[in-house]
Amino acid sequence: MIDYKTVEQSLSAKLDIKNRMSLPKLQKIVLNVGIGDAKTDPKLQEEAINTLTIISGQKPILTKAKKSISGFKLREGEAIGVKVTLRGLKMLNFVERLASVTLPRIRDFHGLDPRKFDRQGNYTFAIKEQMVFPEIPYDSIKSTHGVEITFSIKLSDPNKSRALMECMGIPFMKDDSLNQK
Fold first, then answer.
1. Alpha carbon distance 143, 158 (integer Å)
2. How do residues 19-49 score in pLDDT, each as one tens digit?
3. What is the pLDDT of residues 134-148, one digit of tens each?
4. How far is 94 from 117, CA to CA, in rounded Å?
5. DSSP letters of 78-142?
6. pLDDT for 51-103, tens place per residue?
7. Cα separation, 29 vs 66, whole angstroms
8. Three-state SS at 180
9. CA distance linking residue 12 with residue 24, whole number of Å
10. What's the pLDDT score for residue 142?
11. N or C: which end of the chain has fewer CB within 10 A?
């Protein structure tokens, strides 16, 4: 498991910040699955709930539409997604499994894109298929869906957040591979 004190020490040395209270801190991780087709097939909703339960170890909640949008044939109150928020030990266990097992299983994976940080230093990326998580048995998958993962980081900017995530073992693309895109 990730030892957060070791991460703090290496981050403090990397950023040259002496006061550990001013170091960026991973606050929470939010896993999100959109289930827009659940109106036509209610089994998709159950499958998304089961998938997130297996991945996170927590029961997810349904997110509902706040208002009706006729262009999307969406009514207020309809279920449009499933999400779960990880904090504490479950969050650190998830980061370790993500960095060491899940991300290397993605086909043609060269690292996460470092340009996806927002101004506050939060990082969001998506995994196209839930099959890369080793916890999910292939036999139980009836349809594939993506999983959006958001790292919410406190007291940070994009550079400090990247340093924190690198200290936790999250791989990023090299700068020379970004210029080729």
1. 35
2. 989 999 999 999 999 887 766 777 888 888 8
3. 888 887 777 788 899
4. 20
5. -EEEEEEEE-HHHHHHHHHHIIIIIGGGSTT---B-GGGB-TTS-EEEEES-GGGSTTS-GGG-S
6. 899 999 999 998 888 888 878 777 887 778 899 999 999 999 999 999 999 99
7. 23
8. coil
9. 10
10. 79
11. C
User: What DSSP designation does 65 have?
Assistant: -
Long-range contacts for 35-41 (Cβ within 8 Å, ≥24 apart)? 35/79, 35/80, 35/81, 35/82, 35/145, 36/72, 36/80, 38/79, 38/80, 39/73, 39/78
Place of tokens 């299983």: 105
Q: Give the angle 88-91-95 at the CA atoms, nearest 5°.
A: 140
Q: Please, what is the Cα angle at 123 between 157 and 162, to 5 degrees?
A: 55
Question: Measuring CA to CA, which residue among 106, 144, 100 is closest to residue 125?
Answer: 106
pLDDT band, residue 180 (cuts 50/70/90):
low
Superfamily holding 4-168: Ribosomal protein L5 (3.30.1440.10)
Angle, vertex CA 26, rays to CA 22 and CA 29, nearest 5: 160
